[in-house]
Amino acid sequence: MTVGLEQYIAVSAALFAIGFFGVLRRKNTLVIYMCLELMLNASNLALVAFSRYHGGMSGSVFVFFTITVAAAEVAVGLAIIVALFRKRQTVQVPDLNALKN
C-alpha cells in the first residue's frame, strides 16, 4: 500500500483549514501564532508532496528556504508577544493597540 499525492494534499488541506479557522476564532495571540505556523507547515507539506510526485527537488529546496524564513518569523513574532505581555500583562488580541502608546 502506497500513499498517493491525493492523501498528502488532503492532509495538507485539513491542516491548513484547522489553522485558518484557529486564526479566525481565537483571541489569544499565542494560539493565533501557533495556528499561523500550522498553516505554514501545511503549505510546506503540499510543496514536498508535489516535489515528490514530479520527481524533482525544487519543492524541497523551496521548503528549506521557507523554514529558514519561518525561524526568523518566530523570533520577531515572539518578541512582539513578549512586548505586549510586558506592557499589559495579557496576550489577548484586543489589547494589541496597547503597543501604539
Automatic annotation (TrEMBL):
Entry keywords, A to Z: Cell membrane, Membrane, NAD, Oxidoreductase, Quinone, Translocase, Transmembrane, Transmembrane helix, Transport, Ubiquinone
UniProt membrane topology term: Multi-pass membrane protein
Recorded GO CC terms: NADH dehydrogenase complex; plasma membrane
Superkingdom of the organism of origin: Bacteria
EC number: 7.1.1.-
Principal location listed in the UniProt entry: membrane
Catalyzed reactions: a quinone + NADH + 5 H(+)(in) = a quinol + NAD(+) + 4 H(+)(out)
InterPro entries xrefs: NADH_UbQ_OxRdtase_chain4L/K, NUOK/Mnh_C1-like
GO annotation terms (biological process): ATP synthesis coupled electron transport
Sequence intervals crossing the membrane: 6-24, 31-50, 62-85
First-level EC class: translocase
GO molecular function: NADH dehydrogenase (quinone) (non-electrogenic) activity; quinone binding
Subcellular location: Cell membrane; Membrane
Family membership: Belongs to the complex I subunit 4L family.
Subunit structure, as described in the record: NDH-1 is composed of 14 different subunits. Subunits NuoA, H, J, K, L, M, N constitute the membrane sector of the complex.
Stated role: NDH-1 shuttles electrons from NADH, via FMN and iron-sulfur (Fe-S) centers, to quinones in the respiratory chain. The immediate electron acceptor for the enzyme in this species is believed to be ubiquinone. Couples the redox reaction to proton translocation (for every two electrons transferred, four hydrogen ions are translocated across the cytoplasmic membrane), and thus conserves the redox energy in a proton gradient.
Cited NCBIfam families: PRK05715.1-2 (NF004320), PRK05715.1-3 (NF004321), PRK05715.1-5 (NF004323)
Protein name: NADH-quinone oxidoreductase subunit K
Species this chain originates from: Pelagicoccus albus
Organismal lineage: Bacteria, Pseudomonadati, Verrucomicrobiota, Opitutia, Puniceicoccales
